[in-house]
Amino acid sequence: MKNIYVLVLAIVISAAVACGQQGMRGLRASGYLTSTEISGVLRVVPAAPATGDPRFQADMAIFRATRTMEGSPRWRLAQEDDNLSLGGLLHAFGCALGLELTPDHAPKLTVLLNRANSDAGAAANEIKFKYQHKRPFQVESGDVCLSVQGKAALERSPDYPSGHTSLSWETGLVLAELSPDRAADILARARAFGQSRVVCGVHNLSAVEAGWMTASAVFDMQMNSAEFRKDLESARAEFAALKTAGSAKPANCELQAQILSKDPY
C-alpha cells in the first residue's frame, strides 16, 4: 500500500506534463484554495538549486553521507514514512499526539486533512512542474530505501519540492493547531518525516526544505478561508472528544523517540 500514493502522484505529474499546468490542477481533489492562491506559492519558495551551485553541492554531499545509514533503525523508520495514505500519516503522528487515530475513528479530521493536503500537494506539484529538478539518485548512483518499482515511479516525479514533506508538514500544522499542548512534539515529528526522504535517498535536502516552505505558505492561506476554519473547528471538537474518551495509545513510542533523538545529517 505504501507505494500506491507514489504511483498515483507519478501518474498525475505525467498527465500534467502532457496537458500543462491547468491539467494538473484539474486532476486534484477539492481543496480550500483557488488556483491563483496555489500559484502564489511559487513566489514564496525559492528556485531549485542549479547544477554545481553551493546548494546543489551541499545536497549531493548529504546524499553521499546518508547512504551509510542503509539497514539502520532510522533507515527502517524512513521506509515506514514512505506511506502517505491518511492512515499512514495518522499512524506516523501517533506518538506525538499520544493517540492512535485512524480515518474511521475521526471522520471530520479525515475530511479536513484530505482537503488541506490536496492544496499542499497541488502547490508542490506546480513547483515540481516548473523546475523539473532531478532527484539525487538520478545524479549519482546510490541505494535508496524503496523497492525497484517504487524507485522507478519516483523517476517520473521531479525532486523539488518533496511532496511527502509538503503533505506531512501540512498535516503537522493542522494537528498542532488542534492539539497545541503537543505542538512541539507534533512539529518535531513532521520535521523528521521530511528528513526521512533524505535518509531514503529519494529527495535532496533542498527539496525537503522547500516542502516545509510550501506547506507553511499553503496553511497560512488556508487560515483565511472561512470553509477551512469551519472544518477546522468541527475537527477540533471531534479531536477533543477522542482525547477525552481515551483512544488507544500508540506502541513503541520510546523506541521511536530514541531513533529520532539524533538528527540524521
Written overview of the protein:
By secondary structure, the protein is an all-alpha fold. The chain is 67% helix and 0% strand. The protein is built from 15 helices and no strands.
Descriptors:
single chain, 265 residues, mainly alpha, globular
Judged by helices, strands and strand pairing, the structural class is mainly alpha
| Radius of gyration from CA coordinates | 18 Å
End-to-end CA span? 28 Å
Helix content: 55-70%
Question: Secondary-structure map with pairings?
Answer:
Elements lengths: L3 H16 L1 H7 L7 H6 L13 H13 L6 H8 L5 H7 L1 H4 L9 H25 L4 H4 L8 H7 L8 H16 L4 H18 L4 H18 L3 H20 L7 H8 L5
Helix pairs in contact: 1-2, 5-12, 8-11, 8-13, 8-14, 11-12, 11-13, 12-13
The gist of it:
By secondary structure, this protein is an all-alpha fold.
